Amino acid sequence: MTSSMSATSFLERVRPPIEATLDAILPPQNQSPQVLHQAMRYSVFAGGKRLRPSLCLAGFQTFRDDWESALPIAASIELIHTYSLIHDDLPAMDNDDFRRGRPSCHRQFGEDIAILAGDALLTLAFESVAGAPHMAADRIVGVTRMLGKSAGTVGGIIAGQVLDLEAGESVVGPEMLESIHRAKTGALLAASVSIGAYLAEADEDQLEIAAEFGRKIGLAFQIVDDLLDETASFSTLGKTPGKDREQGKVTYPAVHGIPVSRRIVSEVTGEALASALRLGPSGSLLADFASHLEARVR
Amino acid sequence: MTSSMSATSFLERVRPPIEATLDAILPPQNQSPQVLHQAMRYSVFAGGKRLRPSLCLAGFQTFRDDWESALPIAASIELIHTYSLIHDDLPAMDNDDFRRGRPSCHRQFGEDIAILAGDALLTLAFESVAGAPHMAADRIVGVTRMLGKSAGTVGGIIAGQVLDLEAGESVVGPEMLESIHRAKTGALLAASVSIGAYLAEADEDQLEIAAEFGRKIGLAFQIVDDLLDETASFSTLGKTPGKDREQGKVTYPAVHGIPVSRRIVSEVTGEALASALRLGPSGSLLADFASHLEARVR
What we know:
Two copies of one chain form a homodimer. Chain A is an all-alpha fold and about 300 residues long. Chain A is built from 15 helices and two strands. A two-stranded antiparallel ribbon of chain A has the order 1-2. In chain A, a hairpin with a 2-residue loop joins β1 and β2. The first copy, chain A, is globular and about 45 Å long.
């Protein structure tokens, strides 16, 4: 597919159907148990950028045009992302009072409901992948495995969380830092692109390139987040800035300093662009996503 | 299939392969992040009876002989059960210090690791269902939906947890009590039987009977648990007895008294037996499971 659209236009175009799909997947908030469904919706509709589902759809669009068919699975990835944020914010974890400019889920609904709302979003993600209409069973099984791995304990989100918690207690070198970032944020971002390409039935070589691209932008994205935590304001960030440093979190600016961190973002983004270009003209949308994500930090 | 085996013999026979399958599914405890994999194994290998995977295999055995092929999926159900126990025990939830005679996961590993270990077991359950060998993709998709529903917010485990938390704050009548028990414990027990029958390719009528049987024993099982909490010792129970009452939990003995609760167990077990008998001679194994579960309270 030739994708002449810019990342910005694509994000604008896919956002309303992503929101509508999330709304359709989530139980209504007047359905029992109401407080739980309210908490799930509170966190899912807190104004996220929907980057992961958009990347999934962009990965799909790179190889096939009818990205609408991938919407239920793309939306499920956002549910997993939201669950990880809710649990990450808990008092026993990062203890964050704010998320996207509003009280975090446990501040709003209590710790018990926040734990269960996270559990529920994770469960619903897998259930709704399995219930995705017009999707071949073997693709659904493949997506479930990819999602499980990227959310899991071997190089996935949970591995990243544990390594991140442990890092607060010791000196962390550049290699461990990269591992943490790749797991905690990179794995699900990379899986988003890969799942889109996989659903569009990209071939083996194309899937490997899409995965490589995803790993690169996943890493770059988290380094940019680290930089923004140092340099942005509460209103830009939607949460307390400088919190990473205050909590002794291991970040690129802490290990490498701000100028070198910016240079690493440029390098990794360059590698992502090179991967996207290996896909020929159809890779232009993904290439523009890489530039778009880097530009956040300028 | 004619299943002349007793529930006790069947439980003894399937237990070693269930343990071996769980061991194969769980990452080794020396794999990074070690503390997390240790916590997952600590809770999974805490000496549970493996009732849910055994019921899944019994549901399978009722319609087909080669229950070994259902082991990976049966074991995944135990992972979901274990995740729900870990999160249920957390300080923000039931705040239980003991589980199966040992410190609960958060007492042993800290609250952060316990939250993540629960998350990880839930994630791994879905991932390993999707990775089950020799299983048709459409069956895997069907199982994923059944598991998601039984663990979820609409009549599943999480719904039961929330209703249970809310029940502590108000007077609960017999109908709400039954709903809580059906969701919190009954849904996954019922799904265990249904998933086994579904994997063995039971027909629509047989599946409906298996589901009905599962709902009955699921309810009976939880009422028996309520009764044991009132009448058993720490060593029998592996956790602090009388805790339900102390926490103001809504239980059958609290609402109906002990004698009526016992009578309800007998009635519901009788209904389960009637369902099992509708399957003809092949229903004898399930029928014996119903009697076996009731006998715990005598």
